[in-house]
Amino acid sequence: MKNKNLAVPAALASMICVQGGASLAKRLFPALGAIGTSTLRIGLSAVILYFINRPKFSSFSKKQWLYCAIYGLGIAAMNLIFYMAIQRIPLGLGVTIEFVGPLFLALALSRKLLDIVWALLACTGILLIVPWGTGNIDLLGLFLAFLAGAFWALYIIMGGKVSKVMDSKDAVSTGMLIAAAFIIPFAIWDGQLAKITPMLFAQGLGVAILSSALPFSLDMVALKQLPAKTFSILTSLQPAFAALSGLLFLQETLTGLQWLSIACVVMASIGTTLFSRNH
Prior knowledge:
Residues 140-272 form the EamA domain. The protein is mainly alpha-helical. The chain has helices spanning 2-26, 29-53, 62-86, 91-98, 100-109, 113-129, 139-165, 168-190, 198-225, 228-234, 238-250, 256-275. The protein is globular. The two termini are 15 Å apart.
């Protein structure tokens, strides 16, 4: 029961870490680009988690390796594509659009009318935040954010599955190593990591700890105890954390209507969390 009480706080702490790390990462984009920054984040996180958790690879079954591989692919694609998106659009907008993945996952897993009501409220928020009436929409940035959302849903599904068939620490460590293996070829092609300096490396280490090592470990605590549906809509708090982080650390402002859209998403999150306690 003790671990179950930690599930929601772990998910919230994970979101705060991720968005703080994303703001720090965006500061690295001018020097390293989205691909270089993402690779530095994933690679350093993989190394940190490996030496902390020391997964016993020889004891893994074929099923565990398969689940870890798909989980790692989800991590790599979600992070790489999301960084490419927020290189083009504000952090708060990017995270809100990306939430379409967990949102549709929640809709697909819903069994009650009330669940659909909360998901539709979150959907309304997502539709409101996109600046449809302006001529400066970066369509590629929006598309990349939607695509990152699809891999976010895959991450949630596989995180829940892999945490049931093996130790969570082993799963996170192995998933991050596999994610690093997926993303390194893109970094070699991009060539931006050749520009790294000790200061950039130190900043990248901070991004790795805040954005991957800590939150993915915390997510495993949450995913082990919460249904994928509950976790999916709970993560709708991400846009609020992202918008605040973007405002505080990057001076990225949103319109009143866009803040209202974030409020819709947050209300959906609170609603589903309160009414899902007995399930």
